[in-house]
Structures are given as structure tokens and as C-alpha cells.
Amino acid sequence: MSIRVLLADDQQLVRTGVRVLLESQPGIEVVAEASDGQQAVELARQLRPDVCLLDIRMPVMDGVEATRLLAGPGVVDPFAVVVITTFDLDEHVHDALRAGARGFLLKDAGPVLLGQAVHAAAAGDALIAPSVTARLLQTFAAGRHDGAARPPAEPLTPREDDVLLAVARGRTNTEIGDELFISLSTVKTHIASLMAKLGVRNRVEIALWAYESGRLRDGR
């Protein structure tokens, strides 16, 4: 079955271009378009798309607030949200990730990356273009919230700490397994344990916790 996508951007030309790119990829169907955040929230709740692609800067309700309503901590059945922005260091991206977005894309992303982003979000993966996302997290999370993260419910094991730092650096599961010489299933087990101990819901929030707790400083 196709992955059903809701696309929200206040510029019709952008929506049309992104829609064409998305639907050129196999297994993706754009089921609705919205021109502002409020409309996006209403359509998402009505249609229950698999993935919501939201522009950050929209009228009526911006992408950050729309993300919070669709994927925030209080949402029982959160949507898979990926935010779209013009600048990879847009300060609002950090707020959107904190609000529950699973990742972000630049508006000039090509069809292959767009397709990868949608498939990854639908599968529950979080970091899209991990090297860029890691840089953004380092820029906006570390300096502003150093040491402010809630302590884990249980102490992390040394291996969990290794996986934590790898996630924060934007590594994929496969890359983590190769670096630590462990299987893919073991990586997934450690990530699930990290989410439980840190009280987070996805790997974006794992990465944010690593920066906000001061576990990863200055790229180390």
C-alpha cells in the first residue's frame, strides 16, 4: 500500500512542486494539501495520513504549533511529522523537533531525499539528512539547554551511552552497528531501552537529550 502524505505550505507553487516530486517516487500518494497550520491539523485529524510534511513558517498557525498539536507529548496517537524549511539552521526547526517532529527537510531537497524522508518517517525512523540535523541540534540545543535534561529513570549502561552518542551524531542504525561491532537488532534493542529510560518517543528526542544533558559537547 502507498504511504499517504499530507503536505502543508502557504505557497501553492511550492506545494505543487513538492507534490510532483513526491508522487514521482514509488509507493507515495499525496492525499491532501493545506495552506496553513490550522488547516493542516484539521485535515490530518480527518484523514489520518501516514506522514505530514509541514512548512515551518505558515500563516494562521505555524508549523511548530501544528507539530505540537499533531505529535506533541500530550498526543495519544501521534502523527509522523517532518518539517520543511528554507534554511538548515532555522532556529524554529529546533522548536519543531522539540514539539515532536521526527526530522526535517530543506525545500530544495530532490525527489530521492524527499522519498527517503517519507519512507523513513512512515517506518518510525527520525533523523533525515542526519549530518545536517546533528549540526542543527548542536547549534541550538547544546548552548541553550546544557545540563537541563531530565535524568534517566535508570542509569545508562556503557553500551547504551555509546549508542546515545552515536544517535546524537546523526548515525543511522546500520552505521552504529558497524562502528560498535554489534548487530542491527542489538542496536534497535539499545535504542528502545534508551527511549524507555529517557522518557522519549523517538531518536530525535534521544539526540536532543544528549545535547541538553551535556553528554555531547563541541561535536565530541
From TrEMBL:
Residues 149-214 form the HTH luxR-type domain. It comes from the Bacteria. InterPro entries: CheY-like_superfamily, NreC/VraR/RcsB-like_REC, Sig_transdc_resp-reg_C-effctor, Sig_transdc_resp-reg_receiver, Tscrpt_reg_LuxR_C, WalR-like. One of its GO terms (biological process) is phosphorelay signal transduction system. GO terms for molecular function: DNA binding. The modification 4-aspartylphosphate is found at residue 55. Residues 4-122 form the Response regulatory domain. Keywords: DNA-binding, Phosphoprotein, Transcription, Transcription regulation. The keyword Transcription applies. PANTHER family: TRANSCRIPTIONAL REGULATORY PROTEIN NARL-RELATED (PTHR43214:SF24), TWO-COMPONENT RESPONSE REGULATOR (PTHR43214). This is Response regulator transcription factor. It comes from Actinotalea soli.
